[in-house]
């Protein structure tokens, strides 16, 4: 089997409502879709969702890199040779994980379809019966965040994740308001997205909310400040999760060495796809750390890839595969039942991709063969 063509589409997906985090507010999100075709007629789809604040990749840089630097190298390659494909990409371009993730996901989609197996069977099989997703609340006024969280609980959600990080004093009010609105039995996850900056500010907030029974605090300091993250972990009883501070194996080794976090948030767009994500899971298992698979708020394509990984690995106890719930239009359909994401035994990613919508939403398109 050989790759005979790679098509790259630069699109923008519209959100149902603004997505607001500490470093930006989004009304639509950029998505780079890859369509990979083989000489046997098997087609795979991948997706890259760039975030310049996290990986340094922009919408235009990801598209241009795929078209000009990565895709041409892979024509004639076997998509099953995933380690070789990653080596070719890494030899050509340093880092650039989002661009590489788009290729990686398309390869796994092809492998699953060619083997007539769901991707999770290629990653180890089903280790979890179901995937439970949280309800994510953007940064808003405390009262509105509390209202949305309470509404989500009434709809059957058992876990609420809230975004904070714009104002430490208001963040205390946000956390307290949401906890009061959802009661004591619902999981409360808090994500500062680097917004508190340093360990001193983070601890000033956390000491005021330690009684709120937070499941964890995520990325309370700047991404590069692993010393600060370790300092927070030593000083608080709240479990600490690293997100933006973890990209690939290098950061994972440093996090383990510094004992900087209790939990890790793996994102395919940060590490470069499913193949490198599996390496991070193995490292975490050796260090006795629990894993979550997170999302850049991706379409059904990349969300499905993250869901397959979450289903296959026992060390992954949590996932945030909620992207399709946040878009008014999507390139495929995933099945959600209340707060559960259901994957069936369809081969590959199991996503019936709407190519007409991809073409309609595309601002740029290239075919490499």
Automatic annotation (TrEMBL):
The coenzyme or cofactor needed here is:
Mg(2+)
Q: EC number(s)? A: 5.1.1.-
Mandelate racemase/muconate lactonizing enzyme C-terminal domain location, by residue?
142-239
Q: Where is the active site?
A: 163 (proton acceptor), 267 (proton acceptor)
Do you know which InterPro entries this protein is assigned to? Dipeptide_epimerase, Enolase-like_C_sf, Enolase-like_N, Enolase_C-like, Mandelate_racemase_C, Mandelate_racemase_N_dom
Q: Which residues bind Mg(2+)?
A: 191, 218, 243
Molecular function GO terms recorded: magnesium ion binding; racemase and epimerase activity, acting on amino acids and derivatives
Q: What is the enzyme's class at the highest EC level?
A: isomerase
Which UniProt keywords are present, listed alphabetically?
Isomerase, Magnesium, Metal-binding
Q: Which GO terms describe its biological process?
A: peptide metabolic process
Asked if the Swiss-Prot or TrEMBL record annotates the protein with the keyword Transcription regulation, the reply is no
Which SMART domains does this one have? MR_MLE
Signal peptide, first to last residue: none
What's noted on cofactor binding? Binds 1 Mg(2+) ion per subunit.
Q: Give the family from UniProt.
A: Belongs to the mandelate racemase/muconate lactonizing enzyme family.
What's the protein here called?
A: Dipeptide epimerase
The species this protein was found in: Brevibacillus centrosporus
Organism ancestry: Bacteria, Bacillati, Bacillota, Bacilli, Bacillales
